[in-house]
Amino acid sequence: MKKNQKFFRNCLKELKPYDPHQVPYKIKLNANENPYGLPGEIIEEILRKAKKLEYSRYPDANSEKLSELISSFWGLTRDNIIIGNGSDELIDYLIKAFSEKGRRAITTAPSFAMYKIYSIVNNTNFVEIPLDQNNFSLNEDGILEEAKKEDSSLVFIAYPNAPTGNYFAKDKIIKIIEESGCLVVVDEAYYEFGGKTFAPLISRYNNLAILRTFSKAYSLAGLRVGYLLSNPEIINEVKKVKSPFNVNIFSQLAAQIVYENKEILKGSIKKIIEERERLINRINKILFFKAHPSQTNFVLVEVGSKENADLVYNSLLEQGILVQTVSDPVFSSSRYFLRITVGSKEENDILLKELENISKNLSFTPL
Ligand SMILES: Cc1ncc(COP(=O)(O)O)c(C=O)c1O
């Protein structure tokens, strides 16, 4: 098929369809999901109430009950929240609402891949400011230099960052909020594993938005629910670009029940945090691997060269363990990483055994 026909978009020419890495596996540690899933009692409640839903009707366009539940928990109102099909959809909406051709969005390198993909899709120039290569700290002055330009409108900051797993200093982010003149989106997808949030600052700043998801701690990745907290003007702009009935009735119901029962999920979150620390300690005892500190439900493991990364990835996959390779041009060619989701204790034990075997049987250039 020829792509020089007038109906193709120039900005999509270089973009490849998203590759979800769907390969057969026994243990899935590549997408930062919750390995424990929802407790049976919550699933039963969802299914019981789902019988009474009116599937022939459109869903509540603004997910009112869920919006009320979450916003009131944060001391906010329904005008402060919008629900999306995962936070992915909300990232797209934010760029649609606050950008256009000729405008610029800014984030860190590395960071969450979808900021770039949706910027390209929405014809927005995209700038990545490298993190400090030693401790992954934020270069706030680099971000501000770009953000202060007239045509910059959005700054995305993942807090904690993905895939590095660390929090950036709060005062650096505040400086960006106060001085950039941009809408600053603080993406708190992993909030429940680290506990720090910018949510209380929404009433103080009119250019701050917080992104959250039900896909990680709340075990609901399959139903695609996320939300955005901000002031009413920002939320109203995002509603202008939203599909009218974006979140389906089943997802709205399930998210509501999960949020009402979030205390029950604390046990699995605590286990994940404990397992995370155990994984980091154990991986750091294995020659040639370096696990970086993490405030999330994944661990960034440095493995050296690209050859090492491919070897470890493929050897794990041969044993049915699926992890995620991380390569970012921002790192030198001797720095390759694997991003490994914290699994259940049993899964982590199998992973650790395999990593130990791989390190024994292969010859690495030591880090
Ligand atoms: C930092 C960050 N933000 C947002 C998301 C998207 O989450 P979802 O679209 O499932 O809500 C992810 C998923 O991995 C993420 O790592």
Walk me through the structure.
The protein is an alpha/beta fold. It folds into 2 domains: 12-36 and 265-361, Aspartate Aminotransferase, domain 1; 40-260, 3-Layer(aba) Sandwich (Aspartate Aminotransferase, domain 2), CATH 3.40.640.10. It contains 12 helices and 13 strands. The strands form 3 sheets. Strands 2-8-7-6-5-3-4 form a 7-stranded mixed beta sheet, sandwiched between helices. Strands 9-10-13-12 form a 4-stranded antiparallel beta sheet. A hairpin with a 6-residue loop joins strand 9 and strand 10 (298-304). The longest helix is centred in the C-terminal third of the chain and has 24 residues, at 262-285. The structure holds pyridoxal-5'-phosphate. Pyridoxal-5'-phosphate is lined by residues 32, 86-88, 112, 158, 162, 187, 189, 213, 215, 221, 226. Pyridoxal-5'-phosphate binds at residues 32, 86-88, 112, 158, 162, 187, 189, 213, 215, 221, 226.
CATH superfamily placement of the largest domain: Type I PLP-dependent aspartate aminotransferase-like (Major domain)
Strand content: 15-25%
Second rung of CATH, namely the architecture of the largest domain? 3-Layer(aba) Sandwich
What low-confidence regions span 5 or more consecutive residues with pLDDT below 50? none
Specify the helix fraction band.
Answer: 25-40%
The distinct ligands, each listed once, are: pyridoxal-5'-phosphate
